[in-house]
Amino acid sequence: MLVDSHCHLDFPELLPRVDEIAANMRAHRVGHALCVSVNLEDFPRVRALAERFDNMYASVGVHPDHEGGEEPTEDRLVQLADHPRVVAIGETGLDYYRHPELAPVQQARFREHIRAARRTGKPLIIHTREAAADTLRLMREEGAADVGGVMHCFTESWEVAEAAIALNFHISFSGIVTFKNAVALKEVARRVPADRLLVETDSPYLAPVPHRGKSNEPGFVRHVADEVARLRQVDTAEIERQTTANFFGLFKYAAVLSRGA
User: Apex CA 251: angle with CA 250 and CA 253, to 5°?
Assistant: First the structure.
């Protein structure tokens, strides 16, 4: 069984189809999924999915691009993370693509998440876009290596991957790795150590080939695994085994839940 390490099943594109999506996961041998929070207002929907499906887990956090909602303080994140099915802190990080002028606000928010992760012992889910140097700097300054986590939907260079791995982080590949023009990213997928490798969909976005341009869903993570296997010249079964072991090794609270399911 594969694990989709990052999806947004609470989004309106997917939530009405959640029973169908769960069935499609089973049909494609995707055994588990991590439903990731992007703001505190919608977090109850994320948590509810993890409560309803015994093979789904939740995170709590606020995306760096999110504006206008409740600001996540360390104490508030710790409070919301105190739930057995909340296994991670995030999605958090830095994204300077649209609003570089908000860098100070994003950095302060990111620090709150890292501190909450350290207090709870739950790993971080990190998003970075056009902000790799600052992302890594804050990870170092705040001691993110103490809890580790994942650089989700990775699109950066090998040098950034190597630095993140040195900070106790995993590297997760999405459907982007199946795109023809993702030449540099494919090389990173070849080089990441096997024990730091994860796969994801980032549903409903970034559907992999052959579904590119359509709404994505966790069942499609198998195409990501197929491409990573091809790039690394191994069987997909090996990627399935390794990434599933990596997921439960990183998200230890999910591992406890899976044993009890």
Answer: 140
